[in-house]
Amino acid sequence: MIRAMGFVLLTGVALMSCVAEGGPPVSVDTQETAIRPQADTAPSARATGTTGTTEPASSESKRVDFWFEGVPVQGALLTGRVPSDTVSLQFEGEHIELGDDGFFIVGLDRDSPAEVTLVAKLKDGGAIERRLSVAPGDWKLEHINAPYRAGVSSAAFQERRGAELAQIVASRGKNVQSDGWRQDFIWPVTGRQSGFFGSQRVYQGKPGSYHGGADIAVPTGTVFVAPADGVVTLAARDEFTLEGKLIIMDHGHGLNSAFLHASAILVNEGDRVRQGQPIGQVGQSGRATGPHLHWGLKWNDARIDPLLVAGAVS
Predict the structure, then answer these.
(1) What is the average pLDDT value for the chain, to the nearest integer?
(2) Is 260 within a domain?
(3) pTM of the entire structure?
């Protein structure tokens, strides 16, 4: 899932500049990794790259503290494992779902603050807190020497849009079970990347809305596939005003994908799909100026950069 973006496996007590309360600076193992934790792999034998080495299990300090994979930068998705004897985990004050093996994911929003906090509650009543320093994202900003003008929507649009947004919110609020979040994600379709996550126009110093996904320009009718295992929570064949024909898929643990502007939808709501399975055809339905697939990723409320999850488009 993070094999092509310079992501690293981080062992020891914390990530990079993450500070242990009252402790010394931590060390970082910068060996690249191409393998995310799988459900059938014991935590003490996680693969750490092509060398065949495994995470050390002999050091008590490493077994009782956090383990992370990923680089903490805005728009990134991190994988972690909680300390030994953890009973619950909070990220920025919110409860985080844990796998049976203690693994979890957290997403860093496009506009994430410079520091975020994880707190693991332990069986003995204690807690371990870790602070992660988050690097700023490198977004494509276009500065426009013109005043910002917000669009004015008709009453009919507002009424229809409200119903559409309600369906999107409901689809993302469904409780489904999937281990897709553990997989190395692939691109739903490959081609020329025509739109970049986080890009934004700034009008005389006032920022407009930013682009919340990645766009791949390919001909109408091109089949796109599931980037990872998941459950279809929305299959909107009746075009939404902006998104057109829309698919939303839940990969588990708060991570979901949205696929916009399709010309055809090949799955139904409730379908359990496998990575690489065809789910739709590219189009330009909704508000689109040409045929392309818009792939958006969210972890809970955080918007995630697909390029940091699936690597460079091949």
Answers:
(1) 82
(2) yes
(3) 0.79
